[in-house]
């Protein structure tokens, strides 16, 4: 059925690039006024040729999912099940999750090709039998529509996807998330265990330098799984290799914060750090007040997400939104990235409206999540600056290869100019 929106502000909202997501009613009215058909609200406007390309993409990703299922036969996902990521709910199966810090077999640390490409395991992906072309159907202001006959998807379809594309996207992301994270049952089991005093003493006895290197090792393991997650996002491997690497370099730390939210017990103020549960207060101390601000900011951001009690599906979609944020500095394929972002946004909005009431007034869960993205960017820059200070003070320490290349001086310059 066609959606029915309501305006809480007397149907007089300003609809511009900044505020366009605040009121769906007024945004829809502006779109209709500018010439969008009412049928497009439900079905989108696509030529037969475009629809065939979409169907080819659906078949391609279904084949990918079947191949993944064959490789991991114990993977189970129920697209209809809502599972809050709080400390009192379980979900999914533990699909061979590699422990933090453990290398994935697909990562080859060699000198063939660009170093970062080999560390990430990114290889050009062969096209499907009938390749498609994601072209620039999108104006910077998404309330105006400029169709091109060669486009893959138009804004009306993406904004209101209700068919196979949306279902395949949600299912693909949910499975990618489940297969690259520890299952919640394992996390909750770790929180229920009595404290391991020997491990607590071990971490408490670490020097500042040892803790830095241990955190870098844990983060590298998490980022390896984030890269695997990104490669399973429908359409991500169709982007240029440069854009794939740039998105991962600038977004991997931000996704790590999102994933940290699953490892926090907000009631007990504890975090699962590798294979030991630590009080968060034990983690938020550092010599340098700037490092202290970074650690506190990371935990505050992660706890904010944890309090929203997102489902696993919502966490998967949110990670896709954060990674594909189209305004990252230096990306070349902006229309293609915007296309993938819009698809994830439409699915995320649907899930959030289905599962969550407004938090305060007309502020929604999605509003809160989107407002956190600039904070992630700021924390990522703070991490790069902290790393530069640590390297300057301890030049002899060696970091994991992937960590070293992801968080290089070039990354600082990218953020500074972004």
TrEMBL record:
InterPro entries in the cross-refs: NHR-like_dom_sf, Nucl_hrmn_rcpt_lig-bd, Nuclear_hrmn_rcpt, ThyrH_rcpt, Znf_hrmn_rcpt, Znf_NHR/GATA
Keyword field contains Disulfide bond: no
Residue ranges, compositional bias (Polar residues): 78-89
Protein name: Molt-regulating transcription factor
Name of the encoding gene: HR3
Keywords: DNA-binding, Metal-binding, Nucleus, Receptor, Transcription, Transcription regulation, Zinc, Zinc-finger
Organism: Chilo infuscatellus
GO function terms (MF aspect): nuclear receptor activity; RNA polymerase II cis-regulatory region sequence-specific DNA binding; zinc ion binding
SUPFAM superfamilies linked: Glucocorticoid receptor-like (DNA-binding domain) (SSF57716), Nuclear receptor ligand-binding domain (SSF48508)
Subcellular location, record wording: Nucleus
């Amino acid at each position: 059925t066609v959606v029915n929106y309501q305006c809480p502000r007397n149907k007089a909202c300003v609809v511009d690039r900044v505020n366009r997501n605040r009121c769906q009613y007024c945004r829809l009215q502006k779109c209709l006024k500018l010439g969008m058909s009412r049928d497009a609200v439900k079905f989108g406007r696509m030529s037969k040729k475009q629809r065939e390309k979409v169907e080819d993409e659906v078949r391609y990703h279904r084949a990918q999912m079947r191949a993944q299922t064959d490789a991991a036969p114990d993977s189970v996902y129920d697209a209809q099940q809502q599972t809050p990521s709080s400390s009192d709910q379980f979900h999914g199966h533990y699909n061979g999750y590699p422990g933090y810090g453990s290398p994935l077999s697909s990562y080859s640390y060699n000198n063939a090709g660009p170093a970062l490409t080999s560390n990430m395991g990114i290889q050009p992906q062969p096209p499907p039998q009938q390749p498609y072309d994601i072209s620039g159907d999108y104006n910077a202001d998404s309330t105006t529509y400029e169709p091109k006959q060669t486009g893959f998807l138009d804004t009306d379809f993406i904004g209101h996807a209700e068919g196979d594309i949306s279902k395949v996207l949600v299912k693909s992301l949910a499975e990618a998330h489940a297969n690259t994270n520890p299952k919640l049952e394992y996390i909750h089991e770790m929180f229920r265990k009595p404290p391991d005093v020997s491990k607590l003493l071990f971490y408490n006895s670490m020097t500042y330098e040892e803790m830095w290197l241990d955190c870098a090792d844990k983060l590298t393991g998490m980022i390896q799984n984030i890269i695997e997650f990104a490669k399973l996002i429908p359409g991500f491997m169709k982007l240029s290799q440069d854009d794939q690497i740039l998105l991962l370099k600038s977004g991997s730390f931000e996704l790590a914060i999102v994933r940290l939210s699953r490892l926090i017990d907000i009631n007990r103020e504890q975090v699962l750090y590798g294979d030991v549960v630590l009080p968060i207060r034990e983690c938020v101390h550092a010599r340098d007040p700037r490092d202290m601000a970074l650690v506190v900011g990371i935990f505050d951001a992660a706890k904010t997400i944890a309090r929203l009690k997102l489902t696993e599906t919502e966490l998967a979609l949110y990670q896709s939104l954060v990674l594909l944020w189209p305004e990252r500095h230096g990306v070349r394929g902006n229309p293609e990235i915007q296309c993938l972002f819009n698809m994830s946004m439409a699915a995320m909005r649907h899930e959030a409206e289905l599962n969550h009431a407004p938090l305060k007034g007309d502020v929604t869960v999605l509003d809160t999540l989107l407002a956190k993205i600039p904070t992630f960017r700021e924390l990522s820059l703070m991490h790069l600056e902290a790393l530069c200070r640590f390297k300057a003070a301890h030049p002899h320490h060696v970091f994991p290869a992937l960590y070293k290349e992801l968080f290089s001086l070039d990354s600082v310059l990218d953020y500074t100019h972004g």
